[in-house]
Structure formats: C-alpha cells, structure tokens
Amino acid sequence: MWSNNSAAPFLLTGFLGSEASHHLISIPFFIIYLSILFGNGTLLFLIWNAHSLHEPMYYFLAMLAGTDFGITLTTMPTVMGVLLLDKREIAQGACFIQSYFIHSLAIVESGVLLAMAYDRFIAIRTPLRYKSILTDSRVMKIGLGILLRGFVSIIPPILPLFWFPYCRSHVLSHAFCLHQDVMKLACADITFNRVYPVFLVAMTFFLDALIILFSYILILKTVMGIASAEEQAKALNTCVSHISCVLVFYITVIGLTFIHRFGKHAPHVVHITMSYVYFLFPPFMNPIIYSIKTKQIQRSIVHLFSVYSRA
C-alpha cells in the first residue's frame, strides 16, 4: 500500500545547517541572478538591434544567451523563495515542469556550444564560403534542431514522474527540482529513469564534447597550415571566446558529475555548492567572456551607452 501523502508537495532545501543565514546568503545570489539577466539580456538586445552583429556567429551567441537567460528564470524563483522567503513547498506538477526545463535547457546549451564550434570550423576552414554555407535559413534549422533535441529527448524520463507514487520523504536535496533527486523519492520501479539518463548524457554532453574536440583538432591543423604567424594568431583569436565558454561549461559539468558519482562521503554543502556553480557560473561568465574578447560587441556596448548617455 502506498502512503496517503503521495500527492503532497515536495519540500525544497537550501543550505542545511545555515538556515539562519539564508537571508544573508540570498544577497549574493540575488546580485548574481540580476547580473546574469542583465548580461545575457544586453547581449540579446545588442544582437537584435546592431546590424554589425547580424552574422551566423552572433546568431549562435544569441541562442547561448537565450538559453542562459532561460535557465536563470527557471531556477531563480524557487532558489530565492527558499533563501529569502523560506518558501520550501513546491507542488509536484510545478516541480516536474521545472525539472523538465532545467535538464532540457542544459542539453540545449551543449548543442549550442557544438553549433558554435561548427561555426568556427566553417569560418576558418572555408572562410570564402562561410556565409554561403551558414545562411540564415540553415542557422534557423540548426537552432530548431538543437531545441527539438533538448526538449524532446528529456520527455521520456520526466513523464513517468507524473504518475509515480511518492510514499517516502518528500524532502529534496536542492532549492530546485532535479530529475535524479525526484526519482529517488518514488515508490516504484525506476530502472528506466536510472538507465535512460546515462544513455542521454552519453549521446548529448559526451558526444558533443568529443565532436567539439575533433573540430578544434581540424581547426588547429588548418591554422598551422597558414604561412603568416600574424594570420595564425588572428584566426585562433576568433576561437578564444568559444573555447573559454566550452571550458567553463564542461568543467562545471564534469565537476558536478564527479561529486555526484564519487563524492558520496563529501559534506552536503559541497554537493549543493557544486550544483549552484553548475547553474550559475556559465550563464554569469559567458557574457563577460564575449564582452571582453569580441571587439564588435565591445563597440556595440560603447555605442549603446553613448546613445543612452546623450538621451
């Protein structure tokens, strides 16, 4: 017999043992969230309005900024609710939907980084055919494919969560809902929910990382064939921003995976902190990286502020 509280709300968790300091902890979180929204929102605004940024490279960057914006809006309400308002209850349906968007957007981000690697590969290997290969319609098709992969592939493990009975503790480990966290509370056969995500991670994150690595091997081979050292440096410099974003994303993914798989005896705060680093660090860093390393974006930012300062 399943317990009568199967449909009861789940309880989110902040920093265990530091509940008295949650109000103070909420301040840096709120600042970081606002910075992420402002940074990625600015990138989206610039790419939409600046004609000089209407190129395939910046369309993919807009996808990356939009994904980071979405991840932030997905996690921010519950995290700030727990830390600032001590609002821990979340309805099961809302929890499953949040989990769906968190995981699907993570897969989308990996796909966008892969598309950006393809963009750099085309730009360096066949620069004269760059715009004829990456036409607006092809960029849109790539973007649509990335979105479909992310939002469709995560449906199979999320749907069963809606009909699983939950007769164990309803306390979750984070201030947001993750699939691996929720499924452990189910009083049902969760074999599929354990196996499918492993396959999915292998076919998305792991495969994307391998293709990105392979593309950069080919890019490096092409660059080494350029006679002028100055041209070599110029070609590689166009890849620095993307490489930095890839490293930021996959290092946090690997760190979080390592902690979950091998850090069972690590303090709870380590697991929680790594989860927040995974969801906050890449969206926070990506606009900074592109603003520092991309001259067109720097000029657009300067132009934007000069226009508003005159107004």
Automatic annotation (TrEMBL):
Residues 39-290 form the G-protein coupled receptors family 1 profile domain. Its main location: membrane. It holds the Pfam family 7tm_4. GO terms for cellular component: plasma membrane. Keywords: Cell membrane, G-protein coupled receptor, Membrane, Olfaction, Receptor, Sensory transduction, Transducer, Transmembrane, Transmembrane helix. The keyword Heme does not apply. It is a multi-pass membrane protein. It comes from Pteropus vampyrus (Large flying fox). InterPro entries: GPCR_Rhodpsn, GPCR_Rhodpsn_7TM, Olfact_rcpt, OR51/52/56-like. The chain crosses the membrane at residues 30-48, 60-85, 97-118, 139-163, 198-219, 240-263, 269-290. Belongs to the G-protein coupled receptor 1 family. The gene is LOC105307593. This is Olfactory receptor. GO terms for biological process: cellular response to lipid.
